[in-house]
Amino acid sequence: MLPRFLSILPKSKQEALVTLADTDGAAVVAGGTDLMVRMKKGESHKYLIDISGLKELWGANILDGRINIGSVTSFRALSMDPLVSTLAPALSQAASWIGSPQIRSMATIGGNIVNASPAADTIPPLLVHDARVVLESRDQVRAERLEDFITGPYKTAISSKEILSALRIEQLDGYTEGYRRIAKRAAWAISRLGVAWAISESDNTFTDVRLAIGSCTPAPFRARNVELFLIGKKREAPVIREAVSLCLSEIRRISGERPSFAYKLPVVRDLLGLLLGGR
Q: Residue 138: helix, strand or coil by DSSP?
C-alpha cells in the first residue's frame, strides 16, 4: 500500500518550479513507474508535484543545433518520434525495448535519468550523443553533462528544488550508430548488458568512435580509452582485438571482479568484435 500524500497538478512549468521551491516535503513525479515502486517499499513524500501534463516539457525538436527532448516524453512517444528515430536511432531503439507497452506509455526519459539505474537502457545512447541535462529551479537554469550528472548507482546531482526539464543531445551526422542489449528475455525484462555505439569512418579507417557500456559498472560509461585507441586506425582484426581487450580491462578497473563477469565479459567481447568489425 502506498503512504498517504497530496497530489499537486501545476498548470505550467513556472508554477511547478515555484510550488517546488515553496513546499517542504514535496517530490516531483511524471510517469511514476520508479517512484511508485520506491514508495511501496517505504519512501514517503507529503506532496507529489505531477508534471506529466505539462506540454512544454513534452516532445523533441531542434534547439541551438542540438536535439532537445522534453523530460516528460514517454518512451512510447520517444520510440515513435520521427526526429529521434532519424537523428538518434540508437536512442529510439533503446526506448522501444524498455519494459512492457504499458510501462513505455507511462515511463518518461526524465524519470529514467533521475532514477539513474546502472541498467537504464537510455543512458548508453545518450552518452554516445554527448547528452546535457537541463535542470531548472525557481531561481536558475543550469546545464550539466550527463556523465557528470550521474554520480553513482541511483544517485545524481539534482537538488530537491530542481526539475530536470530537458535533455539536449548532439547530432551525429555521418555516423552509423545503434544499441544492443542482452536480457533474460527478448522483451519485458531489465537489461543485463547494453552497448551503444556511433562510428564514423573513411576508407576503412576509423575517424571517430563512440562507445558506451551499461549494466557492467556502477554507472554506464563511455569507453574513452578505446575510442582514442581506434581513431585513425584501420578496421582490421588485430586492431579490433586490441580495442576489445582495452574495453574489458576498463570494465574490470572500474568494477573489480564480479561473479556476473563469467558471462557478461564474453558477451561484451563478442558484441564489440561484431560491431567494430562492421557486422
A: coil
C-alpha of 123 from chain center: 2
Give the separation between CA 29 and CA 27, rounded to whole angstroms: 7
71 touches 171 (CB < 8 A): no
What is d(CA 154, CA 111) in angstroms, rounded to the nearest whole number?
A: 11
Nine-digit cell at 7?
497530489
Half-sphere exposure of 122 (CA within 13 A, CB side): 30
| CB of 134 closer than 8 Å to CB of 141 | yes
CA gap 206, 166 in Å, rounded: 32
CB burial of residue 94 (10 Å; 0-12, 13-18, 19+): buried
Through-space distance between the first and last CA atoms of the chain, rounded to whole angstroms: 49
Question: pLDDT of the chain along its 279 residues, tens only?
Answer: 788 999 999 999 999 999 999 999 999 999 888 898 899 898 999 999 999 999 999 999 999 999 999 999 999 999 999 999 999 999 999 999 888 889 999 999 999 999 999 989 999 999 999 999 999 999 999 999 999 999 999 999 999 999 999 999 999 999 999 999 887 777 677 778 899 999 999 999 999 999 999 988 999 999 999 999 999 999 999 999 999 999 999 999 998 888 888 888 999 999 999 999 887
CA–CA distance, 160 with 219 (Å, rounded to integer):
21
Q: Positive or negative CA dihedral for 33, 39, 45, 46?
A: positive
What's the pTM value of the predicted model, to 2 decimals?
0.93
Report d(CA 257, CA 217) in Å as an integer: 11
- Our measurement of the distance from residue 104's CA atom to the centroid of its chain's CA atoms, rounded to an integer in Å, reads 14
Say how far apart CA 121 and CA 195 lie, in whole Å.
9
Only one residue has cell 519494459, namely 99
